[in-house]
Specification:
Helix content: 40-55%
Strand order of the largest sheet: 7-6-5-4-3-8-9
Shape: elongated
Order of helices and strands: EEEEEHEEHHEHEHH
CATH architecture of one domain: Alpha-Beta Complex
Oligomer: single chain
CATH topology of one domain: sialyltransferase cstii, chain A
Largest sheet: 7 strands, parallel
Number of strands: 9
Distance between the termini: 98 Å
Strand content: 5-15%
Structural class: alpha/beta
Length: about 280
Amino acid sequence: MNNLTNSNSDHLIPSPLNVLYHHHSDGVVVRLGSSRKKVAIMGFEEANGQTGPWDDLAWEVWNFNMANRMGFTHDAQGRFRADRWFALHPIGPQNDLDLAWINTCPVPIYLPSIFGHNPNAVAYPLADIEGWLRQEFNVEQPYWASSFAYAVALAMYDGAESIGLFGVNLDWGRERIVERGNLEFYIGLAKGRGIQVVFSPNSKLLTHPARYGIEYDAERNQVIEDCATVVRQLAQGKEFKAAIDAEFQERIEALEHVRDEALAVVHNLLYGKRASISDREE
């Protein structure tokens, strides 16, 4: 059995590169040793070939959601490599495999609020981070559209000097429309603060196919193609299809209503006028 695709941590062999933690009797999880100033945020595209610093002791490695079942969260020796984990969805959307991992994850795992029985569970410090963003960056209303944005904000808050985004493209469907811009906003805050931000080779983050306006045809044609691709991707989802069907149905009903009103007006113009002539002849 592949230990790297288990839904729980029973058979995982931890990498010696991982940060060590101690559990106090009051439930507080405390790291041992000095903090690392580099944070590697690992996306699911790492499953197509590792690009991150999985074997570099200088980096903290942060993983997400069901990455434990995707076979890439390991060092060169095949040992489990993670220093923190993020599962920032409430308990409702979590399936049985998700919950099994949340309850057994062997490293601190950030949740929107504590649920389950894992002593490593940590409530994401949203109020503290939003207050810090308002104070440090004058961000009046922080907004959140992806787990990666929460992670970048936490890395900044914790004092990271380098943040790496590996296997993170956000170039598919909802990710491209909603999540990527949100993540790039926090990347911009990090860069503005002087934090080094690095990416996987060929990353799509902070890129655009051509210069708007100046390279008019190239930019316009590629954007049209990209938009069409995203629409096709979204159309594969059941929820999107249902929303589109509902929208079409509303428009059809609205058009039918306009048609009925128009027919009524025409009817009154024709038959109302005829009735008026008949009245005068009498």
